[in-house]
Amino acid sequence: MMQTTSFSQFNIPSIVRESPPPATTIHRRKTTLSRRLSLVLAVASPATSPSRHQVTHSMPPEKLEIFKSLEPWVSENVLPLRKPVEKCWQPIEFLPDPSQGPEQFEEEVRALRQRVLGLSDEYFVMLVGNMLTEDALPTYQTVINTWDGVRDETGSSPCPWAIWTRAWTAEENRHGDLLRTYLYLSGRVDMLMVEKTLQYLIGAGIDIGLENNPYLGYVYASFQERATCSSHGNMARLAIKGGDPMLARICGTIAADEKRHEHVYTRIVEKLLEVDPNATMLAIAHMMKKKIIMPMHLIYDGQDPNIFEHFSAIGERQGIYTSRHYAEILEFFITRWKLEKLEGLIGEARRAQDYVCGLPPRVRKLESRAKKIETRQVKFSWIFNKQVSA
């Protein structure tokens, strides 16, 4: 009989928000916000301080052999989903190209700045938030390289798990580069504050409770990639409405990358459910109990410790990422992974299955309650270049 991994009891995701510790933001003037923010479920709720007790290496050592045995499967089923560099898009394809000469370059920059005038300040707040999330990639690769059994031991390991992680990092790296350059050329934001915020964010790291455990890590990555795809896709929709088709194309292209990455991590979890269903079911429930926390939850700008709450409130109000999206993602994975139909689970894993499959109605109920909470306007006046702000 296969040994199972024991996790703690499973609770409904809390909608009570805790203030994050100083870690990364984007402000110049201090803003105020009612403490009665719109309630964005788990994915948009800040974590507790990194100084809390952190569980490490929760995967039993005997599980290492499972990930070793899956290496041929990764080579055959995951690595082909990498895109060859020569077939990948690059940021310069979406940006004014200085190689065309100064006059053409300046004309394209002027056209870009004209297009963005139709986009609201709140849109740019969320664009900065998405850019910071993408640009904190050094932290994310570092986290993946802590996972037992799949880490890159040398920095250039031939292990297929490590090859995928490096390829994923290289593909993701373009997202932040492209969004940051577009923001810079737009003239709409104070890039000094944005750059300081990014430095705070990478320095703070993330505290998403993965315990160096690849079971937890791949569940988180599946959920997070789908959430990011949704966010960028909604940004594309709003960019079209605001009159910037190029920015819509940028956000849509990034969303397509995230969708492909989601497919990889979803496929990995499917395989883990096949070879080790009890431990994988426990991992899914464990992450739902902890709540899938956005990787930029420790964002700080040097002044405002509640900046993540402000981003979350605007994301909810603009429909970019909301409690409804969280519920839909949860429902999607229950269906995709066929969790309700899993058979042969024993003990705590069986109870974990009941918990996860029964969660969506309760999450929907919390979503309905969230809509009744009043949200005041949040002004991120410190982020903007007032000479061109709409």
Any key phrases for this structure?
metal-binding, metal ion binding, oxidoreductase, lipid biosynthesis, mainly alpha, 0% strand, chloroplast, globular
What is the CATH architecture term? Orthogonal Bundle
Strand tally is 0
Order of helices and strands: HHHHHHHHHHHHHH
CATH topology-level name: Ribonucleotide Reductase, subunit A
Instruction: Outline the low-pLDDT stretches.
Output: 1-49
Description:
InterPro entries: Fatty_acid_desaturase-2, Ferritin-like_SF, RNR-like. Helix content is 55%, strand content 0%. The chain is mostly helical and 390 residues long. It has a single domain, classed as Ribonucleotide Reductase, subunit A (Orthogonal Bundle). Helix 6 packs antiparallel against helix 9, helix 8 crosses helix 10 and helix 10 packs across helix 13. The longest helix has 31 residues. It is globular.
Summarize the structure.
With 390 residues, the chain is mainly α.
Sequence-ordered SSE layout with sheet pairings:
Layout: H1 64-69, H2 71-77, H3 102-116, H4 121-135, H5 137-144, H6 160-186, H7 191-204, H8 214-242, H9 245-275, H10 277-290, H11 307-318, H12 323-336, H13 347-357, H14 359-370
Helix pairs in contact: 4-6, 4-8, 4-11, 5-6, 6-9, 8-9, 8-10, 8-12, 9-10, 10-13, 12-14
